[in-house]
Amino acid sequence: MHPYIGSGPYCYSNSLAMMLGAHAPTTGVIETLTGSPFGFQLENGSRPFFDPIGWHPEIGLAAAIDLLGWSCVRSDGGSAAAALDRLRAACAQGPALAGPLEMGLLTYRPDAGIAIGADHYVVVLAVDDDTVLLHDPQGNPYATLPSEAFLEAWRGEQVTYIDTPFVLRSGFVRDRVVSPIDALESAMPHAVRSLEGAPRAVEEFAEVVAKGLDPEIRNLLAIFGIRVGARRLSDASVSLTMLGRTEAAALAAAQSRIVGSLQYPLVTGDDAALIAALHTLAAGYDRMRAALVG
Asked: Residue 102's closest CA among 157, 179, 176, 178?
């Protein structure tokens, strides 16, 4: 096992780490606590994600916050004006975690301006007059946006896993001291349950590839899915090593390597190699689950 260190789309884990400050574990531990590494899902029968069936970042954030012994105030909905007032009031007490937002509408980013259904999380530092000051963990510290532009992104109309806009987490309180080791151990039963459906979902995706992969899905995997999936499993391997679960850690590292190896055949259109790797990946999830149970 050789852990990965580098960039990647860990927006909610990085944002939570910023909120917890000196008490935060590594972002790799936070990501593992969200439960994201332990599964694979095929949304609507065609959109692949390297996370458990039914999982999304809102579920993951809630889990990680609780497992680490923290609580916060989660608020959402209302008019744009009311949401901005709520954000301003929260930031008067300290930073706040906002999201999901629509990444395509964060117009300080090059080539932004069109909603593309890409969810994102940021830490808002202040709302001054008509400007929002924020840390964007995707490489933009102290970014600014006009309030109206931020509200359009924060509305998140194309984010499928929320029913109401303007989701905000503020007022973080450490209710109990929990070590990263204890938090990770508490997360293991859910990890085992989450892995149950992964092999079948991966095999179903292999069938999708065999029938012809939609260019939009290929692009989603190439730009986002494989990158985050491989990193999640690599970080899970490190976390499992911390727990002394060496067999499961080795299997997670092997799964990470397989996911990373999907990038080249995916981009070059070698779907036969892609399908073969997916079959191997499916069997690996079964072995990983068995090791965690054992």
From this structure: 157
